[in-house]
Design brief:
The complex is a heterodimer. By secondary structure, chain A is mainly alpha-helical. Helix content of chain A is 77%, strand content 2%. The longest helix of chain A is centred in the last third of the chain and has 31 residues. Chain B has a domain of 210 residues. Helix content of chain B is 74%, strand content 3%. Classes of the chains: A mainly alpha, B mainly alpha. At the A-B interface, helix 15 and helix 16 of A face strand 1, helix 6 and helix 7 of B.
Chain lengths: 496, 489
């Protein structure tokens, strides 16, 4: 390993974090955007380099400031975190590349440098949560990313974002506090914050009841951040009223990182040490996942605002991810982790297409996009592709994760059969809510005040890149499948 | 050029053609039509060029990509798929000739879009025909559904869009809700979904589970229009007639029964299914569809709707023949795919010709039309006779084999159904023929008209000739399809 590649885990966080204050100083028009995009691209390149390293078979471990592990802060990158890093940095980069015109339209030029600063901080926070192996350090990054995303969501001109973000702030803070209480309890018992060290020490503790309480706090705290049903109420409005570029970025990855931590803590820390906790975990998450899938899809059926509709669909899709995890099997976890990647692709593309629509439509209700396909054929083409991926049609990325999920459910006997039925029903609901939008766009009667023309070329190019990625990873899914299989193996290995 | 390359070309050529149509459509309508015809001809040459190898017993195969371990996009040509591909690609030429007359004669809008999606649909049909496993077949099955949606909703008015929604709704719901779970179940139980002669499920599943899986498959393949999944087919009649003719008499519906045949022959295996009592319901479901759809057809006043219900019944002939599970009946099922295709495309061509020339769509308006449009109505008569199964038409040959298979199995339900439905077919087709030829035109003709445009008459004469040709020269088809049931190549 070369000298530089050794430092990659640290650079993954340091690059966006140090770029953030620099970006704030770049007043001339467009420079802030260029610098932020460059930093995000660099972060993406680092994530790719880390992934290549992980695929070669060596995980990364890095001691901050060269302090050895249990004392200093450790950063770790394995298959699971590499996958998350790809999603986080990829989503940020695509959203930035695409988002310039939509940010220009929505955010006052004076405030743009601050906006991009917050963006990079959110990126640094999310990347930090993915690489850190220190429980308290994770909390710090969580707060950085949360505070930055509050700024991002409320950064647009839409005043309705303010109450939405206030709700998010209150719930997000409650979540972070729960997490902190849980970490505090574990620290009390083990005297360590390093995750690997915790694993070793926690089973030396005589009385495990505080561990159980900690598990409860940490699970609830992270579930709040991950918008696990019924703790999802902050999400729809936050996604709906955020600037479009921010929605692309956050919808693709923000909740996914919290889910990643949830799985990591539970499988590494709690399941090996608490007797019967795997059943607790399964029975706690499975009903919630099923409810999320059914209710999220059902609400999406009746929504009229495009962004809110897609936000409710996200709640259902998070349900798929938790459903796979709740099966506590290798295939189930693979499906779950794979869906983190594939859903980010599909939903990111859909929100990108929505951003395209927003540049030309007077609003984002169904009635606003009536007949828009004739004027914006490329945008709607990408929208249909991503919609098919969300539904899970073969040939698209969404199919691969659904395949794994149904295979995992089939291995569970009678309950599995029921779960398959639920997955099928919700896929059909997805057909309906996607098709409502597509049909309106293709066959609706256009409004008189409709603006003609396609979305800006840069936005369109990125949207199509993402849409084609849905196809690519649907036909050649080697990369995400390999990563998520080895990540699932990592997790399952911990369960006794 | 070897067979593997031919497979790729057969799939890619219509897509390239679609691109060419899109480009040519901006320049000149004649150029666009030339691109369609050249693509159709080239495709037929490629596909028919594969025939000798198939006849010799070769099974060309090609794996395109492996999505995840064990699940790949792969192709493998066998006699049934060859027959379907040859049929669809051959009739595409005739249908394109006909389309040109119809679309121009009717002054339809969005003609370029029409030809583009038509070409994509043909590419999907090729994919279905050559699919080597269930997932590949499903992928192209869905592409076929999606690519035909713009064709069905071509007119774009409220009524059409409503019908197109039924079309898409039924086909997508059944395929995602029933077919996909069945496919995943098969992969889970058997470890693969490859089409293997004799089936892959023997010893992997048993008892009522087989009947259930068969049910998921049969009702999941909505394109085969087994009742109650048939609603989309009458709804699809809002499409321009060339679409009804090639897609809803040949490519789409045949893709449905083809899929069911493939699943019975290559996933379950005929012998395995014959030994399993829980699978016997399929024959009754098909028989029920045949009788009920024929009864509904009897009551129709609109020509295209009558033809649609007749198609529903005729598709179930194929499924019932397959469900008899005897070698002769399987051959009969394959031939009936061809015989019905020739006969029904002729009938639709005639209906479209009548519409273009006289703007008539209802049965009552057809009095005395035979004298004004003798070529069209002669072709119509031949097509109708083939539906009934009267010699010298192709419909007789397939019915012969299906009956022979039914006797092989001593299956009296099937025999009785065939007899009853023959009577019903006669009951709804003969009055039309009688009316067209032997009754006088109403004293005040709505419009003075002669035959439809030449290209349309040419096309329907060709398919009528094919219907008779299948009776006279069915040797090669039989020879190919005997391989299905283990006959020597």
């Amino acid at each position: 390993m070369t000298e530089l590649s050794h430092h990659l885990p640290a650079l993954q966080v340091v690059v966006p974090m140090l770029s953030a204050p620099l970006v704030m100083l770049l007043r001339p028009r467009g420079l802030a955007w260029a610098a932020a995009t460059a930093a995000s691209l660099t972060a993406f390149a680092i994530a790719i380099a880390l992934t290549i390293g992980v695929l070669d078979g060596h995980d990364f471990s890095y001691n901050m400031g060269s302090w050895p592990a249990p004392y200093g802060i450790e950063l770790r990158v394995d298959a699971f975190s590499a996958l998350l890093l790809l999603v986080v940095t990829g989503a940020s980069t695509l959203a930035l590349l695409a988002g310039r015109s939509s940010v220009d339209a929505e955010i006052d030029p004076q405030r743009q440098p601050l906006f991009y600063t917050a963006w990079l901080l959110a990126l640094a926070g999310l990347a930090g949560m993915s690489v850190s192996a220190d429980a308290f350090n994770i909390f710090v990054f969580m707060e950085i990313s949360s505070l930055a995303s509050y700024i991002l969501i409320s950064g647009g001109a839409d005043r309705r974002a303010l109450p939405a973000v206030f709700k998010y702030l209150v719930m997000g803070t409650v979540g972070a506090t729960c997490y902190l209480i849980g970490i505090g309890l574990i620290y009390l018992m083990t005297g360590t914050l390093n995750l690997a060290d915790m694993e070793l020490r926690i089973d030396q503790v005589a009385d495990q009841s505080p561990t159980l309480v900690a598990a409860g706090f940490i699970t609830i705290g992270l579930a709040l951040k991950a918008a696990v049903f019924p703790l999802h109420v902050w999400l729809p409005n936050a996604y709906t009223y955020a600037p479009h570029g921010v929605t692309v970025f956050l919808a693709a990855c923000a909740t996914k990182v919290a889910l990643y931590l949830l799985l990591r803590f539970d499988f590494f820390l709690f399941q090996p040490n608490l007797a019967g906790h795997d059943l607790q975990f399964a029975y706690f998450l499975m009903p919630l996942a099923v409810l999320a899938i059914l209710i999220g899809s059902a609400v999406a059926l009746f929504e009229h605002n495009l962004k809110r509709l897609l936000a409710y669909s996200s709640i259902a899709q998070i349900g798929y991810i938790t459903l796979g995890a709740s099966l506590v099997s290798l295939t189930g976890l693979t499906a779950s982790i794979l869906h983190i990647f594939n859903h980010a692709l599909a939903k990111g593309t859909l929100f990108l297409a929505v951003a395209c629509l927003a540049t030309r439509c007077s609003g984002l209700n169904l009635s606003n996009i009536a007949g828009v396909a004739g004027r914006m054929p490329w945008t709607m083409g990408a929208f249909v592709l991503a919609g098919l991926s969300l539904i899970g049609i073969p040939g698209t990325a969404g199919f691969v994760s659904k395949w794994y999920l149904i295979s995992a459910a089939l291995g569970e006997g009678v309950i599995g059969g029921l779960l398959v039925a639920i997955i099928v029903v919700s896929s059909l609901m997805a057909v309906v809510y996607i098709w409502r939008m597509v049909e309106t766009a293709y066959f609706g009667t256009a409004q008189a005040d409709a603006v003609s023309g396609e979305a800006p070329a840069a936005l369109l190019a990125v949207t199509w890149t993402a849409a084609l990625a849905n196809l690519y990873f649907g036909l050649l899914s080697w990369l995400p499948v390999t990563l998520s299989t080895s990540a699932a193996e990592l997790l399952v290995r911990q369960v006794p | 050029m070897n067979a593997e390359q031919s497979i790729l070309i057969a799939l890619g050529l219509p897509l390239i053609g679609a691109l060419g149509i899109a480009l040519a459509g901006r320049i000149n309508a004649n150029l666009r039509e030339a691109v369609t015809l050249i693509t159709a001809l080239a495709l037929a040459v490629i596909v028919w060029g594969l025939l000798p190898e198939l006849m010799a017993g070769e099974r060309p195969a090609l794996q395109l990509t492996e999505i995840v371990p064990g699940i790949s996009i792969a192709f493998r040509i066998e006699p049934l798929g060859m027959l379907f591909a040859a049929l669809a690609s051959g009739l595409w030429i005739v249908n394109s000739v006909y389309s040109i007359g119809y679309m121009r004669g009717n002054r339809e809008s969005h003609q370029t879009r029409f030809y583009i999606f038509f070409a994509i649909a043909i590419a999907a049909a090729m994919g279905i025909a050559f699919a080597g496993n269930l997932i590949t077949l499903f992928l192209f099955y869905e592409i076929l559904t999606l690519s035909t949606y713009p064709l069905v909703s071509h007119k774009g008015d409220a009524n059409t869009v409503r019908s197109a929604r039924i079309y898409l709704g039924v086909l997508l719901t059944t395929s995602i809700g029933l077919l996909l779970p069945a496919i995943i179940w098969t992969y889970y139980a058997a470890g693969s979904g490859d089409f293997v002669a004799g089936g892959i499920l023997d010893g992997k599943l048993g008892g009522p589970a087989i009947g259930l899986l068969l049910g998921l498959f049969v009702f999941g393949v909505g394109k085969a229009a087994i009742m109650p999944m048939h609603r989309w087919l009458p709804a699809a009649m809002v499409a321009p007639t060339p679409v009804s003719a090639l897609l809803h008499a040949v490519a789409v519906v045949k893709a449905g029964v083809f899929t069911i045949l493939k699943i019975i022959l290559y996933i379950f295996g005929v012998d395995f299914l014959f030994a399993e009592p829980s699978s016997s319901w399929l024959l009754y479901a098909a028989a029920f569809t045949i009788i009920v759809a024929s009864l509904i057809a009897l009551r129709q006043q609109n020509l295209k709707r009558l033809l649609a219900y007749s198609t529903v019944a005729q598709l179930s002939y194929v499924v019932m023949a397959a469900a008899i599970l005897k070698p002769l009946a399987e051959i009969g099922a394959a031939i009936h795919m061809v015989a019905h295709a020739f006969g029904k495309i002729t009938l639709f061509f005639a209906a479209g010709a009548i519409y273009v020339a006289a703007k008539k769509t209802e049965l009552q308006q057809l009095r005395g039309i035979g004298r004004r449009m003798p070529w069209t109505m002669t072709a119509f008569t031949i097509g109708a006779l083939s539906m009934i199964g009267v010699p010298p038409t192709g419909g007789f040959v397939s019915k012969w084999y299906i009956l022979a298979g039914a006797f092989q199995a001593d299956n009296y339900v099937a025999i009785a159904t065939i007899i009853a439905s023959t009577a019903l077919n006669a009951a709804y087709f003969l009055p039309i023929i009688y009316m067209a030829w032997f009754t006088a035109e109403p004293s005040t003709p709505g419009k003075d008209h002669g035959e439809a445009p030449l290209t349309m008459v040419l096309a329907l004469t060709m398919t009528a000739a094919l219907t008779i040709g299948l009776f006279l020269f069915n040797g090669p088809v039989l020879e190919l399809e005997r391989q299905l049931v283990g006959g020597a190549p």
